[in-house]
């Protein structure tokens, strides 16, 4: 989650692994930009300005909860239909 106060223009948000960039899915909630996921690095670009943010605790082996839900406290139950 990032905060951009005052209705200022948002930069383009990219996920980066140090070599490649890809646009990051996000949504805006008031002054906050909620990034959909946990990433190794972010690169924010607006015009010629670039800001890099690094997640030094990133662990791509960690995976998500075994339940398939966003939270380990939620029990996911599949009913009928395709899985």
UniProtKB/TrEMBL annotation:
Origin superkingdom: Bacteria
* Claim: Signal is one of the keywords in the record: yes
Q: What Pfam families does the entry give?
A: CagX
Region described as Disordered: 60-83
Keywords carried by this UniProt record: Signal
Residue spans crossing the bilayer: none
Q: Which InterPro entries match?
A: Conjugal_tfr_TrbG/VirB9/CagX (IPR010258), VirB9/CagX/TrbG_C (IPR033645), VirB9/CagX/TrbG_C_sf (IPR038161)
Give the protein family: Belongs to the TrbG/VirB9 family.
Q: What is this protein called?
A: Outer membrane and periplasm component of type IV secretion of T-DNA complex, has secretin-like domain, VirB9
From which organism does this entry originate?
Answer: Brevundimonas abyssalis TAR-001
């Amino acid at each position: 989650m990032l905060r951009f106060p005052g209705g200022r223009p948002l930069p383009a948000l990219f996920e980066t692994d140090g070599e490649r960039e890809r646009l990051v899915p996000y949504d805006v909630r008031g002054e906050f930009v909620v990034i959909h996921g946990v990433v190794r690095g972010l690169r924010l670009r607006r015009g010629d300005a670039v800001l890099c943010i690094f997640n030094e605790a990133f662990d791509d082996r960690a995976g998500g909860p075994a339940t398939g839900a966003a939270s380990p406290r939620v029990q996911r139950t599949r009913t009928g239909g395709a899985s």
